[in-house]
Each structure stands twice: as C-alpha cells, then as structure tokens.
Amino acid sequence: MKIAVACDGGLVTEHFGHCEAFDIYTEEIGSIVRHERVQNPGHTTGFLPVYLKEMGAEVIISGGMGGSAVRLFNEKEIEVVTGARGDSRFAAESYLRGELVSTGSICHEHMHHGEC
C-alpha cells in the first residue's frame, strides 16, 4: 500500500492543496519499506487526486482538506484522513498501527489558508 502525506518541511500540512510536497510511504506487511518525497505539482481543481492515484496512493493524510477534494479522493477510492499533525512519517506509521483516525477536518474557505 502507498500512503501519501501532504507536508511542509517533513511536517503534516494544515491544507493538503497548498503543501510544498507529498511524502509517499510504501508499506509492506505493516511496515514502511520505502519513502520518497515529491514536490506538489500545483493546486488546480481535481488534479491532485488523479496525480496521487496515478502514483499508486491508497490513502492521503493531511491536517485539513476542502470538501470537494475529499469527494474527488473518495471517487478515486483513496481514503482521506484529516486532522493529522506533526511528523509526516509518524503520521503514516500511526495510520498503519490503526492509531490515526480522521477527524473529518474540512476547510471551508480557501482564502483563509492556514485556518482549516
């Protein structure tokens, strides 16, 4: 399984679309066996769910995300986990242990970036 974590400087970002990069963790038998960081190619409506799906992501972890993005990820059968904070790898590992539960944190106003 591949887990994508929206991050800024290795920390989970508050709003996935405005992150600087995505940490992509590959899991095998419950452990992370590979990590790569890919720069965010840009935030345009509907692009990032397709982009991450093409990279093989089955889960996206972020601090917050807009409702439209959540819907688009769900359409791509990518699980959305919001409300995460802290270190990107720790968030992915917590997810694998079943300890990271989505808070359903939805950003309602893009103009208020950072207030998700």
Automatic annotation (TrEMBL):
Dinitrogenase iron-molybdenum cofactor biosynthesis domain residues: 8-95
Domain of life: Bacteria
Xref: InterPro entries: Di-Nase_FeMo-co_biosynth (IPR003731), DiNase_FeMo-co_biosyn_sf (IPR036105), MTH1175_dom (IPR033913)
Name of the molecule in the record: Fe-Mo cluster-binding NifX family protein
Phylogenetic lineage: Bacteria, Bacillati, Bacillota, Clostridia, Eubacteriales
